[in-house]
Design a protein that fits this description.
Blueprint (H helix, E strand, L loop, with lengths): L6 E4 L6 H11 L14 H13 L10 H6 L1 H14 L6 H4 L1 H7 L10 E3 L3 H11 L4 E6 L2 H16 L10 H13 L13 H22 L3 E5 H6 L1 H12 L5 H8 L14 H9 L1 H5 L4
Parallel strand pairs: 1-2, 1-3, 3-4
Helix pairs in contact: 7-10, 8-10, 12-13
Length: about 290
């Protein structure tokens, strides 16, 4: 059987990428053996993180990847390096042992496969160098639902340092030091602490994603999160065909039943968010909201 080019799922975090990827996984898209809680393939996420770090970027500041992408020599050498990694035993974390022994590398997979990571939105040109026939799925969501989520996540991170565990605080902070500093993990999302800044990040991701969708043409599909929630079966049928997943209507209906339609436009239940949406209504309209 001939090998399949991957399905690369892009879109800002909190946009429904995890929900979408889980459903495609349920329908038959292989998205990796070792996954994070957000259904991201650890193997590809680590590479994306590494690529962004090479240009002093990250999930909240991904645009600096342009310096890597604009340097032809670096881009080619890094491509060779990642191609090697995809043939090394390290790729077992994505393929699993049995698929690794059978296929050796994801490039030989003869089934629909791919991976999800918000970082793909900016590293996509690099991956298209390696997989020129890859297909792209982009999902986007109303920016105020995302901005609100970013603020909540920031507060949760800062609460780690608040006056909790006062009696055992030195021990708790030592635990935090080992978990976050020693492992070089992000402690809290600094950017996105206001609605305006959250909207600005969303704009960056959406503009970048749509640039890729336009350039890839027929090999890309774009999904509005709220439309997905309204008609999940229709969207999943379209995605199954696009991803070449062999499934059934019963399976699609079963997976579609997992959708929680109340999550669409959740910001309307918050007076502050609703008022802010009116203040930026012209900007929202320019993006289809």
């Amino acid at each position: 059987m001939k090998s399949h080019s991957p399905i690369i799922i892009i879109g800002m975090s909190r946009s429904g990428t995890s929900m979408l990827t889980r459903m495609l996984d349920d329908l038959g898209l292989f998205v990796g053996s070792k996954l994070t809680n957000n259904h991201e393939a650890i193997f590809f996420r680590e590479i994306n993180d590494w690529l962004l770090t090479q240009s002093s970027g990250g999930l909240e500041n991904p645009g600096t990847i342009k310096y890597l992408l604009q340097d032809r020599e670096v881009r080619e050498l890094y491509g060779e390096f990642i191609s090697f990694a995809m043939k090394s035993p390290r790729v077992i974390s994505f393929l699993g042992l049995s698929k690794y022994l059978n296929y050796k590398t994801p490039q030989n997979l003869d089934m629909p496969w791919g991976w999800k990571d918000p970082r793909n939105t900016f590293t996509l040109p690099f991956w298209l160098d390696l997989f020129p026939n890859a297909k792209v799925v982009h999902i986007y969501r109303h920016p105020l639902d995302i901005a609100s989520s970013l603020i909540t996540r920031r507060k949760r991170g800062l609460n780690r340092l608040k006056d909790r565990h006062s009696k055992f605080r030195p021990f708790y902070w030592y635990y935090l030091m080992q978990k976050f500093i020693a492992r070089n993990r992000v402690f809290v999302d600094i950017r996105g602490g206001t609605l305006e800044e959250g909207f600005a990040i969303w704009e960056e991701y959406l503009k970048e994603a749509r640039t890729h969708v336009d350039s890839v043409g027929e090999r890309a599909i774009e999904i509005k999160y709220e439309d997905f929630l309204e008609n999940p079966s229709d969207v999943l049928n379209s995605l199954s065909e696009f991803c070449e997943i062999d499934t059934t209507q019963n399976k699609v209906a079963e997976v579609a039943s997992q959708v929680n339609k109340s999550r669409a436009y959740a910001y309307l239940n918050d007076p502050e968010l609703k008022a802010f949406s009116l203040d930026i209504s012209d900007r929202l309209k320019s993006y289809g909201y």
